[in-house]
Amino acid sequence: MFIYSIFGMSFFAYVRKAAGVTEIFNFETFPNSLIILFQVCTTAGWSGVLQALTNDQPPDCDPTLNTPSHRGDCGGMAIA
């Protein structure tokens, strides 16, 4: 789970908070990544997490938002 937490942080750290991605359940920090991966592994609300991570088109996200990610606050359908 440690490796997947790091992958999640690199791909989904700046995803807009929606559905299953909240202030606590997100990929912004390593501990939060472990928490959200534990949630997904226990299948508790994984569909909400997947919905938030696959928002890759406006109006669900803003690809022009100034973040270190090249996708703004969008997720990635292919990566999720």
UniProtKB/TrEMBL annotation:
<dbReference type="InterPro" id="IPR005821">
    <property type="entry name" value="Ion_trans_dom"/>
</dbReference>
<protein>
    <recommendedName>
        <fullName>Ion transport domain-containing protein</fullName>
    </recommendedName>
</protein>
<dbReference type="GO" id="GO:0001518">
    <property type="term" value="C:voltage-gated sodium channel complex"/>
</dbReference>
<dbReference type="GO" id="GO:0005248">
    <property type="term" value="F:voltage-gated sodium channel activity"/>
</dbReference>
<keyword id="KW-0812">Transmembrane</keyword>
<dbReference type="GO" id="GO:0086010">
    <property type="term" value="P:membrane depolarization during action potential"/>
</dbReference>
<feature type="domain" description="Ion transport">
    <location>
        <begin position="1"/>
        <end position="57"/>
    </location>
</feature>
<keyword id="KW-0472">Membrane</keyword>
<keyword id="KW-1133">Transmembrane helix</keyword>
<dbReference type="InterPro" id="IPR043203">
    <property type="entry name" value="VGCC_Ca_Na"/>
</dbReference>
<dbReference type="GO" id="GO:0019228">
    <property type="term" value="P:neuronal action potential"/>
</dbReference>
<dbReference type="Pfam" id="PF00520">
    <property type="entry name" value="Ion_trans"/>
</dbReference>
